[in-house]
Amino acid sequence: MANNTPESYDPLIQALEDAADGAHTYGAAIGLVHNDETHIRADLVALVGKPAGPGGVPPAVPGYKALWNAAHANQTAKAAACRTLYANARSYVRACIHSLYPVLGEGWNAQWNAAGFTGGSLAVPTNPLTLLQQLRAYYLANPARESVVQGINCNAVTCEATAQSISTAESACNQSDTDAATAHNNYLDGIAAGRARIIGLKNELSQLIGKDDERWYAFGFDKPTDPSTPDTPANLTAVPSAPGSRTYIVKWDNARRADSFRLRAVLHVNGRDLVNVLSYETQFVLDLDSVPAGSVVDLTVTGRNLAGESPASDPVEITLS
Asked: Do 294 and 153 have their domain in common?
């Protein structure tokens, strides 16, 4: 990796893995103290967790990322459960409204106040919890107006049960919000600790080994004396996807400090660009079907980052059949 400290999860985990491996191999020899393998792996395990031992002993320990994933999934599920209950409860309240039309009227009037519709409307709110509680009280006060409508029990008992189901779901939803917030904060703290560990290791190494020491690479860092632009990608190859095909699978090795790559295909005779594309992977499917048979094409690839672009790789020459 380059010597900038990763901010997101995947590259940070890779950086910590590289750092721990380097500390394992060279930490004692160079005198690492504050950022040795034990400290690095502790920060790594906090984020990724620890698998179970033989026969499940000791049990697996989930990391902050897995705990946050689980808490977020639970939060989403609990919110969906609440939405479903709200929808079902609204349908139930509408059934109760229809059951009361014969005694209270088919449009809102002052009589509906007694059933809980005190807002001048028979509209049912998104969350009908309080309306269900008022309907329950109405049915308790007027048991003769309880009824069954198309198999739906419009009565105090069902109003109470429906209200309680919403209350229970909302409690679970609120707890899931709390759990998710706690898990997310722990995850962010773990990311911050991991980044601080990488920064601390880099600073400690700068005091223990020279700027041009090859062992920087063992820890996943570039040497401080390395240029800021990427290395030139090596081992460029192009293989037809099928015999006689003019579609090629082009591959190359990753290059240090490269965030992306530029692949060029030019005619050998005059250097005219046929393809000039950017790729974030080290593989590209190159389609040259529109190029006449017998053409000789030169392929090159460069590495790119914010600091600039590397020199081009050695060209690979292909002759189209």
From this structure: no
Distance, in Å, from the CA atom of 241 to the CA atom of 234, rounded to the nearest integer, reads 21
Q: Are residues 148 and 123 in the same domain?
A: yes
Q: Residue 21: which H helix or E strand, with range?
A: helix 9-30
Same domain, 68 and 213: yes
**Distance from C-alpha of 8 to C-alpha of 64, rounded to nearest angstrom:** 14
List the pLDDT tens digit at each of the 321 positions of the chain: 455 788 889 999 999 999 999 999 999 999 999 999 999 999 999 999 999 889 888 899 999 999 999 999 999 999 999 999 999 999 999 999 999 999 999 999 999 999 999 999 999 999 999 999 999 999 999 999 999 988 999 999 999 999 999 999 999 999 999 999 999 999 999 999 999 999 999 999 999 999 999 999 999 999 998 888 888 999 999 999 888 788 999 999 998 888 899 999 999 888 888 889 999 999 999 998 888 888 999 999 999 988 899 999 999 999 988
Dig out the tokens for 215 from the structure. Answer: 């062992």
DSSP 180-230: HHHHHHHHHHHHHHHHHHHHHHHHHHHHHS-TT-GGGGGGTPPPTTS-SSP
Domain-located, residue 6 = yes
What values do phi and psi take at 260, rounded to 5? Answer: -155, 180
Q: Is 165 helix (H, G, I), strand (E, B) or coil?
A: helix
Same domain, 216 and 246: no
Q: Nearest CA to 299 among 239, 257, 244?
A: 239
Q: Do residues 187 and 83 both lie within one domain?
A: yes
Give the residue numbers spanning the domain of 86: 1-225
Specify whether 143 is located in the same domain as 4. yes
On whether both 159 and 307 belong to a single domain, the answer is no
Could you give phi then psi for residue 291, rounded to 5 degrees?
A: -90, 135
Q: Is residue 231 part of a domain?
A: no
312 lies in a domain? yes
What total of structural domains would you count in the chain? Answer: 2
